[in-house]
Amino acid sequence: MTKKILYIHGFNSAGGGHKSMEIKKMFPECEVLSPTFDYKNPADVQKKLDSMVRVQRVNLVMGTSLGGFFAIYCAMKHKLPAVIINPTIRPSETLAKHLGKQKNYVTKEEYQFTAADLAKFADFERKVFDKLKCDGTLLHFALSTDDELLGDHHHLEQRFPDCQDFNYFDQQGHRFAGVKILKPIIERAF
After folding, report:
1. Alpha-carbon gap, residue 147 to 42, rounded angstroms
2. CB 3.0 to 4.6 Å from 143: which of 21, 136, 152, 153, for a disulfide?
3. Domain boundaries, the chain
4. At the topology level of CATH, where does 4-189 sit?
């Protein structure tokens, strides 16, 4: 049976972007699912993820930034291994600087990200994310020491104390340019 990887893109990105294409090249024997999510309503993202994980029988989830937040959600909710790249774990705080007009890097679509959209993330964190039990052995972190948006990520070691797979990389920035260096982490996660 073919293993399935679900890749969750970040804020202002889309499915079928650079990282998912690189993952497909690295693991041609796997099916890489990379849908586009509308991040204005996290409850809708949650429903779509829950359905995909069950219907597609996903073996591994991956995500970058806001996608990393949702990858952690999937790992905790569905007991799946996850490779998490430069995640935000408090989108209600980190997305505050993105209020107003936005443009998706991949689709070039322009839209408004509002205070009401941000409030939905605070609600999701409080009612869903924070209530999930975490098995840190399922989490495999790939973290940039030079993440210009979220910092160096060392706080995650306190947030997920039972995780034993924190991997720090220099010169990757927030977008984590060197996807190919993640191959050993992904292999370990399977």
Report:
1. 24
2. 153
3. 4-189
4. Rossmann fold (3.40.50)
